[in-house]
Amino acid sequence: MASVNDLVNDFLEYCEIEKNHSELTIRNYDHYLRRFLEFAEDGRSREIRPEQINAELVRKYRLYLNRLNTELGGNLAKITQNYHIIALRAFLKYLAKRDIKSLSAEKVELGNMERKKIEFLEISEVDDLLQAPEKHPSKKETITLRDSAILETLFSTGLRISELTGLNRDQINLERGEFNVRGKGGKDRVVFLSDSASKKIKTYLSKRDDNAKPLFIHFSGIKDGLDDGEYMRLTPRSIQRLVSKYAKLVGITKKVTPHMLRHSFATDLLINGADIRSVQAMLGHSSITTTQIYTHVTDTRLREIHKNFHKKS
Fold first, then answer.
1. pLDDT tens digits for 171-220?
2. Residues noted as catalytic
3. Which among 191, 187, 119 is positioned nearest to 153, based on CA atoms?
4. Are residues 192 and 234 in the same domain?
5. For residues 198 and 205, what is the distance between their CA atoms, to the nearest angstrom?
6. Distance of alpha carbon 88 from the chain centroid
7. Of 173, 207, 177, which Cα lies nearest the Cα of 195?
8. Which of 128, 154, 217, 290 could disulfide-link 261, Cβ–Cβ 3.0 to 4.6 Å?
9. What range does the domain containing 300 cover?
């Protein structure tokens, strides 16, 4: 019988090859499961076996995590503790898949947590933000057009910032208003552009006189013969600064981020009647549970609308 240590290695290879998890996910699973092994084997003379993973061991492990001090002197955040348990449950499910006797993953529950607060923009704030580049134009027309196209694209598609910065010119079909993007875990999905976003991108590209492959680029330091390199691609940090700058210029007091526009995209769809499965597909969520965080927000928003507009007879 293989040791748990060997089985963890097998599990990580399974995540890489068969589950196609991202490098970051696999690295996190490795870290969390090694911590579990270190705890489980402490004081033992030999490596732990799969059948020795039981409810009592997991209970003691959870207590250990809750009392563990971080390098900064505090305790592990509840969400981080849950990440450890999520990794352990995924490993136990893998063991069950291979018919290896161990604790059932269903017997390991996640800890209760406060519902994550979702920050999003009201539609009036979105309108103000999208108009910001034209109301506060740059000295260089191409920058104004680029920034306007970026903001429109973020709200139109709900793209993650890494997905936006990774876009290339040749993958965008402006006539159809759609393109494919590869998201987390290497999963591809179709993304749709609004008519406004398509027009903004088309206008922006018509003013570019370079051969650079990236869709959204910076315009400083362009040199002859070097304008087709990756060095011109805007970075996630550049996009974050851009969004924050325009939000402040139009007087939005919230801390606006590109991810908030993704939240606003999802919230706007749900409030206007989109079904949650469709929103899940458009956001590229692998689990409907992730998308369901927005239903709490939209339920609250609908309650406010009902209160404000539904009058008693």
1. 999 999 999 998 877 788 999 999 999 999 999 999 998 888 999 999 87
2. 160, 184, 259, 262, 285, 294
3. 191
4. yes
5. 11
6. 22
7. 177
8. 154
9. 123-309
